[in-house]
Queue: 2 jobs
Job 1
Amino acid sequence: MDLLVQAALNGLLLGLVYALVALGLSLIWGVMEVVNLAHAEYLMLAMYATYWLWALGRVDPLVAAPVVLPLFFLLGWLTYRVLIRRVLAAPMVSQIFATFGLLFFLRYSAFAAFGPNVRGIWQSHLAGSLTVGPWYVGVPQLAAALVALGAFALLWLFLNRTKTGKALQATAQDRVVAQTLGIDVEQMFALAWGIGIAAAALAGVFLMPFYQVSPTVGDAFLLIAFASVVLGGFGTVAGALVGGIGIGLVENVLGALIAPTFKLLFAFAVFVLMLLVRPQGLVGE
Amino acid sequence: MKRISRRRFLRYGGAGLLALSGAERLAAWASAQEPTIPIGVVYPLTGALARIGASIKNAVDLAAEIVNTPHPELEPLVLARPAGLPRLRGARLRLIWADSRGDPATGRAETERLIERERVVAVVGAYQSAVTATASLAAEAKGIPFLNPESSSPKLTERNFKWFFRTGPHDVTFTKLFFDMMEDLKKRGHRISKIAILSEDTEFGATAVGVEKVFAQRYGYEVVATELYTSPPASVEAELLRIRRSGCDVIFGQNYLVDAVLITRTLKQMRWFPQGLIVHDAGWVVPDYLQTVGDDGNYVLTRVSWALGMGRRKPLVTRVNDLYRQRFGTDMDETNARSFTGLLALAAAINEAGSTRPDAIRQALAGLSLPGRQLIMPWEGIEFDFRGQNRHAAGLMAQILDRQYKVVWPFSLAEADIVWPAPPWERRG
């Protein structure tokens, strides 16, 4: 029982981070139906940004977030303006190749700029663990999970309580109608990219206190983010949240109970099962 | 007496000097025309293992330089004194580097390219056992000697290959160290009976797990948990939870860098540490490991083939390391010390062969006999058995104490006293 609770706790915390990574993927798909294969590369770049802020200026990740976030919002925005806008009308295959190319461009730029070394930070304010009875919670993981929850709450408020947020939702539902209503669809697309990339960056910042970055770190997260999006439901914000937590729980609980060797297998078995049984995802319509 | 006019003096002198410098240039030109010996070197130069690949490259380049240029100060190191290979009239080694990217298929393709296009006479590589396995397959097919200095999968020398040679120890030798050390610890009154294994799941990890289980049975220990994961893992919490619950006394680990850091941090968060965390070098001995985890890395026990601390008994180790440090700004490590030695062994064999024909080199390798005093390793020497395994390859156990790797076992060779059991996290400073 102790084991189960502890595994669930670990799964929940990690799942929230997965959710934050999946959020951007889901949002961008939801608003303009583009699969961003380069999504996890932005996570990687944000991890590097956090690392260098810390390595060169001893800036703690806690403090780095307000710097990194706007930067990556801008980067997302720019990615849309410079690249995605041009392939929006192109066939799906072209879009996939465009983001796939972007993936390689970003990854090998990182190789060129930072080298292949694995880099990690130490002496962050976010360190150690809390003990609750027989269980423990890692402080950096807890912080990352709380930040993820906060980000989801803020985004929910933004989407449902502000005019821009509602315009974004309208664009997602039907871009032609949205356009006739006077919504600047182009701006909404760019906004979705900005928010989506910033969310991945936020996850990157808070991963740094307990994970390490290398140019290929995205591999560990991209597939999981995809699985989360499918599990939760394509294109919805709530879906990313539910999906991320779901994958984290499946991976950790089944891993701890049966065999950790197969934890990714469990996660992707659930992914396949969901596609067969309920292709719209847990909270999709 | 006829006075030599200043003008004639200048003219003659100038011509003489010119001739002299011309002769020097001619000599230089002639020596450049001396045949070089192309040797293929395959290592992970990019990708997740590039860090290790880079340090191996430094050491192998340095070894080639020591062979190619006179280094009398490094006597009695093999081939240090002469320039080039004496039996090949001073021919120099020319290393041709290829990048395996840490991938078995690429490693094999690159080895084929080295052999077919670059016409190398021998190949050295390739760090990871999985890559060495495929790369050496290419060399075997083409009939080119393949020398492996640092892969540790025992299977590599059990394939009845004719062209494969390994100078370093393998996991059977290394794993035996773990158990012999634990037996010695038991004689000191410690109770150790249950083992958990936490390992990455490729050739390196999976093979070591098999060897560990065989030894556990032979020595009468119980393996209470075996957890394999794919490196790099997103987390190792599920694995360590199960291991903690298994009630093990020690954890055996085969882990790469990201994994090693993650394991250390997760153990700290769990506020749990076994009596001993005993690991097969890999990620645990990369300098970045201690840089990232700092004091949290203390008390980890790792097998090593080499340690700088050996310099006290073997001054040659310090002298070579000083040269390396001067060149690259860091110390050698136990991985690239093996790579360094591997290239020297190959050079010695080519010199013995007195020929660059692959079959002559193979024969020279098979009959090679280098005494330990000519090496920087703690071995009695290099002599290959019929499988191509160096029969003298052995290892040591080191413990991280105050952020330094100290040889702690065999007790007779120890530079520091082993700390066993490792203190719990609360009692660490």
Note: Chain B is about 40% helix and 15% strand.
Job 2
Amino acid sequence: MKKNRFTHYILLLVLPLMLSIHAKAAPITFNTALPVAKESFINREQFVFKRFKKDKSLADRDLSVNALVSVVAYGVNSKLAVFAALPYVQKDMSLTAGSSRISRSSSGLADSKFFARYTFLQKDQRGQTLRLAAFAGVKAPTGSDRQSDRFGILPVPLQSGSGSWDNFAGLVVTRQKLDYQIDFQLSYNSAGKANQFRAGNQWNADASFQYRLFPKSLERSTKHFVYAVLEANYSNQNNNRIMAIKDVNSGGRLLYLSPGLQYVTRKYILEAAIQIPVQQDLNGLALESDYIMTTGFRINF
Amino acid sequence: MKKTVMLILLLSVFSALAEQNNYQLQVNGLACPFCEYNIQKKLSKLDGVMSVEVILKDSQVNVRMQEGKKLPEAQIKQEITDAGFTLMAVRKSDEEK
């Protein structure tokens, strides 16, 4: 009984966190409308470090999430591409319960995302392109949602997987020139229900500006670009629901600014960005974000 | 001696007649090195293609062919489309001869 109360307490404190892992393709923190060639693969590996420790509650929660996300994109044809994102996560949380400090953690395969993207507008000119694409997919409950520790079963947000099927869809527009690239994305995630828990549905709006720093001017033999990247990520999430009751300490609005760097070659891209929260208007005692560090590479096959 | 001269002459004529079909393509939509990889990959696998050079700043793709080999324009267009770009023009080029 004591264990159950304790688990419930933890659950209420950490429910605000919905740690979604996006499959990303050209900007560093979200998707793009640029093509995946017919019958070709792109592999992307991302290392994501998330830290949440600004806690308004007395529990002084401190949560870190490390994830390795493997994304494979395949071009069905020049317009249609399909993606699979398979994350492996390690979550660690410490908090004060009563007079003692406790830690809880989980690790393993997280929920995977499978989606398709169709480009329905393509305006190509010399050295530039404008593309508009729509995407839609599902998040499948491939991660474990039944992990436990000495305190009992872990609360939903600390599990590697959610147990639920989610649906998501969005639009992405990309304007690329030889000197710069701009991407905008609007997406919506509708969460399913599992284990008496339903995460709040979420709107996301993302923007990315990539400016070529090197080389200053292009030569016949230019094969490498270095981009300075600045991205913005806005999300607005509804309250989660536990046993159909609204959790007032969850959801809210969050805005990140994300400076980064990209090294682009014909065969691969190396990239890194740090997402810094510049506005957090979260509900109740929802745990605030400190930063998200993303680094990784992608390879053309 | 006469036979040798005739043979050399014949070989010279044959060599002059052997056509080297190189192509210069203008490809629109190409704006970063990561994108050019698939154009190179798709064109390089075609029969008779010796090399493919992409000049990003000019949106230009140079295709060097083996002697006597040709690439139909429709096939070039299909490969460029499959790579996700738009073929604007194809010109025969003598540049690499």
Note: The interface with chain A takes residues 26, 28-38, 40-42, 55-59, 81-86, 88 of chain B (CB under 8 Å).
